[in-house]
Design a protein that fits this description.
The complex is a heterodimer of chains A (177) and B (117). Chain A has 177 residues and is mainly alpha-helical. Chain A is built from 6 helices and no strands. In chain A, helix 1 packs antiparallel against helix 6, helix 2 packs antiparallel against helix 5 and helix 4 runs antiparallel to helix 6. The longest helix of chain A has 38 residues. Chain A starts with a helix and ends with a helix. With 117 residues, chain B is mostly helical. Chain B has one domain. The termini of chain B are far apart. The chains are: A mainly alpha (177), B mainly alpha (117). At the A-B interface, helix 2, helix 4, helix 5 and helix 6 of A face helix 2, helix 4, helix 5 and helix 6 of B.
Chain lengths: 177, 117
């Protein structure tokens, strides 16, 4: 039982970082939702806010790590061009997918969408972390600011979900070995 | 000083700027995704790092525009209050446009139209 260097990076990018992001989302959203004076005391707001600031910046950082490791470490292995005359394309996932009309949509639709939509995640997650830090306890007084942060957070999660699902499915059809 | 700082920190302009800058970043990601497909010159220009291909340039350009627009919008808006609703509407339009432009069937169709002309 052994993982290659490429498999290890694919694991870090897709499973470890991606899973932490998706799990942390629920906590972040619940934290934002409950940051209201009618639900918690002033001390409760302060305590939740610290957790929320750490959580949102953590999510922003982890989404940057996921996107950058995906784009600059894993993706080059995926899109590598095989030397001329190569018949076994198992080391060249993109070429392998494109070589078969039954699998080419995994690249043309799945990977093409995933590689772009993934960048939406850290942009939105960073904006949310900034809003949480900038407004601090005032978030409890400004429901529209809080709802905006929650909406951006949810959109980031949806974009991460699309990128993760296609990443997992493409890896299943044409793994990076 | 404290009161003024407290007032500006309570205004919703900073949230409006953050969300508008994010939407600008997203719409430019969509524009560059489409442009890279429709225009070979831009496709080649965006190939900033060959191992990653044009994704390196188009994503970096989108991120640069997002990061550059944010401080300008923040400085312009952070003292203003009551503008978040308008910013949400504008951001939603930009965000949806960006998402449409980075959807492969859409940018491929646009590319086909431009390439066939």
């Amino acid at each position: 039982m052994e993982l290659s260097n490429r498999e290890t990076w694919a694991l870090i990018h897709g499973i470890i970082v991606g899973t932490v992001f998706i799990l942390a989302f629920a906590g972040g959203l619940a934290g934002l939702w409950s940051l209201r004076w009618e639900l918690v005391t002033a001390e409760g707001i302060r305590e939740r806010l610290r957790r929320l600031q750490v959580g949102t910046w953590g999510m922003a950082a982890i989404s940057w790590i996921a996107v950058m490791t995906g784009t600059y470490i894993v993706y080059p292995w995926y899109r590598a061009t095989p030397p001329e005359g190569t018949t076994d394309l198992s080391d060249y996932p993109r070429s392998l997918l494109l070589s078969d009309p039954g699998t080419d949509l995994w690249h043309k639709f799945g990977m093409e969408w995933k590689e772009h939509i993934a960048f939406v995640v850290p942009i939105l997650a960073t904006a949310v972390a900034f809003i949480v830090t900038y407004y601090g306890p005032r978030l409890a007084d400004r429901p529209l600011v809080r709802y905006t942060a929650m909406a951006a957070f949810t959109l980031a999660f949806a974009a991460a979900g699309i990128a993760s699902v296609f990443g997992a499915l493409i890896t299943k059809v044409a793994p990076i070995l | 000083m404290d009161v003024q700082q407290s007032d500006s920190r309570s205004a919703d302009g900073a949230a409006a700027a953050a969300i508008l800058a994010a939407a600008i970043g997203v719409v430019f990601l969509g524009i560059f995704a489409t442009l890279s497909e429709a225009n070979t010159d831009f496709h080649d220009f965006a190939d900033w790092w060959h191992r990653v291909g044009p994704l390196s340039g188009k994503s970096s350009l989108g991120l640069i525009i997002w990061l550059a627009s944010w401080p300008f919008l923040h400085l312009a808006l952070f003292r203003r209050d009551g503008i978040l609703q308008a910013a949400i509407v504008v951001s939603a339009v930009l965000f949806i446009a960006g998402m449409i432009l980075m959807f492969p069937p859409v940018f491929e169709r646009i590319a086909e139209i431009f390439i066939s002309e």
